[in-house]
Automatic annotation (TrEMBL):
<dbReference type="GO" id="GO:0009897">
    <property type="term" value="C:external side of plasma membrane"/>
</dbReference>
<feature type="signal peptide">
    <location>
        <begin position="1"/>
        <end position="22"/>
    </location>
</feature>
<feature type="domain" description="Ig-like">
    <location>
        <begin position="67"/>
        <end position="146"/>
    </location>
</feature>
<dbReference type="InterPro" id="IPR003598">
    <property type="entry name" value="Ig_sub2"/>
</dbReference>
<dbReference type="Pfam" id="PF13895">
    <property type="entry name" value="Ig_2"/>
</dbReference>
<dbReference type="InterPro" id="IPR003599">
    <property type="entry name" value="Ig_sub"/>
</dbReference>
<dbReference type="InterPro" id="IPR013783">
    <property type="entry name" value="Ig-like_fold"/>
</dbReference>
<protein>
    <recommendedName>
        <fullName>Ig-like domain-containing protein</fullName>
    </recommendedName>
</protein>
<feature type="domain" description="Ig-like">
    <location>
        <begin position="431"/>
        <end position="514"/>
    </location>
</feature>
<dbReference type="InterPro" id="IPR036179">
    <property type="entry name" value="Ig-like_dom_sf"/>
</dbReference>
<dbReference type="GO" id="GO:0006955">
    <property type="term" value="P:immune response"/>
</dbReference>
<dbReference type="InterPro" id="IPR007110">
    <property type="entry name" value="Ig-like_dom"/>
</dbReference>
<keyword id="KW-0732">Signal</keyword>
<feature type="domain" description="Ig-like">
    <location>
        <begin position="337"/>
        <end position="422"/>
    </location>
</feature>
<feature type="domain" description="Ig-like">
    <location>
        <begin position="519"/>
        <end position="578"/>
    </location>
</feature>
<dbReference type="GO" id="GO:0007166">
    <property type="term" value="P:cell surface receptor signaling pathway"/>
</dbReference>
<feature type="compositionally biased region" description="Polar residues">
    <location>
        <begin position="50"/>
        <end position="63"/>
    </location>
</feature>
Length: 578
């Protein structure tokens, strides 16, 4: 009876163990969701891979410990194309003949292998777990480990230092530049690098490729790719490095006038075309020790000793440009302005104009052509607007007479005041009409010149008006000629006009025109008979022609006698002289 009871109790215990294991297998799928939820709260190792806690049960009546899934390599991100080893590890299960089951199921993996390799694609992303079997006993399913597969990053080639010119892939010969391969998102991985330039492989196999003392032969395309484990990224896009000879600087002057006057301020500037944004240092000729080397300009309040040649060069990194061409700064004493009058008639040259006329007072600065001058005027030491080169007086009166002077300003520097020019405004004298010849009587057929004379108006641009009007006479002529007839007799007067000013009318001069008188021949002595051998004077008398400059013509019979005076003497008369 006792033996039967012990046998029954042993059977019961064996059934409990077997049934308990079977129940665990049956309920595993029901508890999978709960285990998966527990996986999300499981401790994350330093690589970010989920790993479950293995609870070692020492009770000899329970199943073996919980397996752990590991991934080699332990990178936080796996790139498609890389090879990963997924391993099922059972702590304390060494030496046993285990078979393994995987989730997701891997039909191509031998059941006796605790690991398998995947050359991953993005579809291999997901959770992985395993369990082990020994004899007829299964372990629990391991906690999930999550594998994240992404496309490999594309490298980027960058240049250091990142100057403006470098951003545009341009450096100057002699400079040092580092070409760097940057893999975004690949931080922390053990990368090796491969470089190529124009499709030719170039060492070194490192993240940076440094070019020291660059020459034009270093120009070209650079690209890189990275390798992690046995997987390569794509080649980066090419970056083309251009190596130029350093540009030649240019020295400029501001303001850029051909001549600078002592006392003015000039900015000397070193300009490097295409070098904007770079950290240049500058050297000057003549040397300027008091100027910071990083400044591309300096200012001078010039004296005549500052005249001369200026040039510069620029340095960046270990590279220097050429010396610029020389620019010559010419410093002279400021010019003295001169006041002139326009129009430049004779009277204006002597600073005399007539009331009613218009005159322009001009400030001329010899040698200052092309500069942006401003002007200041004064008259009798009183400042007078406008601040322009010319000061115009319209319809001058005697009150406009006086002294005028000017000075010029360029930038912040003034010239000296010009010498004074004194303007005199007069009322023109009354014109006078004269006749040439000035005989009291003019005979018809003679030629007379009528002249309008304005005393003190010589050289001015006069126009004339006549009474009676002479339509056929140019208005700019002060005289006209008449071959007179008796109808030309009468009174004549004139006036002059300069600009908008008219003189008074002149006094009238009367021209008397008469018919020419008939000459009379007389004899001296006035005897009716002359004896042979006596002397006789024959005289031509023109009644009313006294005072005139006459010339005479004589003839005896039809024969002309060469005598131009009003007398003709016959000495020792003969009968042939009769």
């Amino acid at each position: 009876m006792g033996h039967s009871l012990l046998c029954m109790m042993g059977f019961f215990l064996l059934s409990t163990v077997i049934c308990g294991n079977a129940e665990d297998n049956i309920t595993h799928s029901q508890d999978a969701d709960e285990e998966e939820e527990q996986t999300t709260s499981a401790q994350r190792d330093e690589f970010g891979v989920n790993s479950g806690n293995s609870n070692l049960k020492t009770d000899s009546t329970t199943a073996p410990i919980k397996p752990t899934v590991t991934v080699q390599p332990f990178w936080p991100q796996i790139y498609s194309g890389e090879t990963v080893t997924v391993r099922c590890e059972i702590q304390g299960g060494k030496g046993a003949q285990w078979t393994y089951e995987w989730s997701p199921y891997k039909s191509n993996t031998p059941p006796t292998s605790n690991e398998y390799k995947i050359t991953v694609t993005e579809s291999d992303s997901g959770g992985y777990s395993c369990r082990g079997r020994r004899s007829s006993s299964w372990t629990e399913w391991s906690n999930n480990i999550t594998l994240r597969v992404i496309a490999p990053p594309e490298p980027t080639v960058t240049l250091q230092p990142s100057r403006t010119q470098i951003h545009s892939s341009v450096i100057y010969s002699g400079e040092t530049v580092t070409v760097r391969c940057e893999i975004q998102g690949g931080e922390g991985a053990q990368w090796t690098y491969e470089w190529r330039r124009n499709k030719l492989n170039t060492p070194p196999t490192s993240r940076e490729y440094t070019i020291s003392g660059a020459t034009k032969s270093d120009g070209g395309g650079y690209s890189c790719r990275g390798k992690r484990d046995s997987s390569w990224t794509e080649w980066s896009d090419n970056i083309t490095l251009t190596v130029l000879s350093p540009p030649k600087p240019t020295v400029t002057l501001q303001p850029s006038w051909t001549q600078i006057y002592s006392g003015e301020t000039v900015t000397v500037r070193c300009e490097i075309q295409g070098g904007e944004g770079a950290q240049w240092t500058y050297e000057w000729r003549p040397a300027k020790s008091n100027k910071p080397p990083t400044s591309n300009e300096y200012k001078i309040k010039v004296t005549e000793s500052d005249g001369g040649e200026y040039s510069c060069l620029g340095g960046r990194s270990s590279s220097w440009t050429e010396w610029s061409n020389v620019i010559t700064l010419s410093v002279i004493a400021p010019p003295e302005p001169t006041v002139t009058l326009q129009p430049s008639r004779t009277q204006l040259n002597s600073s005399v104009i007539y009331s009613g006329e218009t005159v322009t007072v001009r400030c001329e600065i010899q040698g200052g052509e092309g500069a942006q001058w401003t002007y200041e005027w004064r008259r009798n030491k009183l400042n007078t607007p406008p601040t322009s080169r010319e000061y115009t007086i319209s319809g001058a009166t005697e009150a406009d007479g006086g002294g005028y002077s000017c000075r010029g300003k360029r930038d912040s520097s003034w010239t000296e005041w010009s010498d004074n020019i004194t303007l005199t405004v007069l009322s023109p004298s009354k014109p006078t009409v004269t006749l040439q010849p000035s005989w009291t009587q003019i005979y018809s057929g003679e030629t007379v010149t009528v002249t309008c004379e304005i005393q003190g108006g010589e050289g001015a641009q006069w126009t004339y008006e006549w009474r009676p009007a002479r339509l056929n006479t140019p208005p700019t002529s002060s005289e006209y000629r008449i071959t007179v007839t008796e109808s030309d007799g009468g009174g004549y007067s004139c006036r002059g006009r300069a600009d908008r000013f008219f003189t008074e009318w002149s006094d009238i001069i009367t021209l008397t025109v008469s018919s020419p008188p008939k000459p009379t021949v007389t004899l001296q002595p006035s005897w009716t008979r002359i004896y042979r051998g006596e002397t006789v004077t024959v005289r031509c008398e023109i009644q009313g022609g006294e005072g005139a400059q006459w010339t005479y013509e004589w003839r005896r019979g039809q024969i002309n006698i060469h005598e131009t005076s009003n007398e003709y003497k016959i000495i020792t008369a003969t009968e042939s002289a009769a």
